[in-house]
Amino acid sequence: MAQVSEQTALMLAVRDRRDKAAFSRLFDHFAPRLKAVIMRSGTGSGQAEEIVQEVMLTVWRKADQFDPERAQVSAWVYQIARNRQIDVLRKESRPVPEALKHETENEPDATRMLAVEQEAGHLRQALEALSPDQRVVIEKAYFGEMTHQDIHDDTGLPLGTIKSRIRLGLERLRHELKGLRAE
Fold first, then answer.
1. At the top level of CATH, which class does the domain 114-177 belong to?
2. Which among 19, 81, 144, 146 could bridge 150 via Cys, Cβ 3.0 to 4.6 Å?
């Protein structure tokens, strides 16, 4: 059996055993990321939280529809979120933001989804190859969407050190991932 990601293992536990602890971990992982993505499209914090709650409820209710052969968990969850956000915007008779329109018009095919999943795997491996100091600040900056000042406040590291670690880490990632697009 092929090795699966932590999120896939958790989602399969929810799908197959209705595992509430696994769902709680998925919720803790996806909720802040979903909220940030939804807010970036201009939705207010309160409404974004409501959408996230509805999305995660849908994930729980429709867990039986998750198929790890068709999409990775993040793609499946973000698709549910995008669809829910479009529904909310339509109900409010607000125009759909351009970014969401283009995604609807250009639905990714299975080949593209597989390529994205493979690229994500390469990125995970490249991140693991970084020094822990570099990996932590890059994850905070790019996955946690923290500013340099937020990272400083969180870690106590000097801003110059944070910037250097990010710069050096990104250079190493570029080197590790070089040629990925050429394949």
1. mainly alpha
2. 146
b/e sequence 63-91, b meaning 16+ C-beta within 10 Å: beebebeebbbbebbbbbbbebbbebbee
Summarised one tens digit per residue, pLDDT across range 111-124 is 666 666 677 777 77
Domain covering 6-107 in this structure, CATH number: 1.10.1740.10
Residue 50 φ/ψ, nearest 5 degrees: -65, -45
Residue pair 72/117 in contact by the 8 Å Cβ criterion: yes
* Residue 93: pLDDT over 80: no
Hey, where are the domains in the chain?
6-107, 114-177
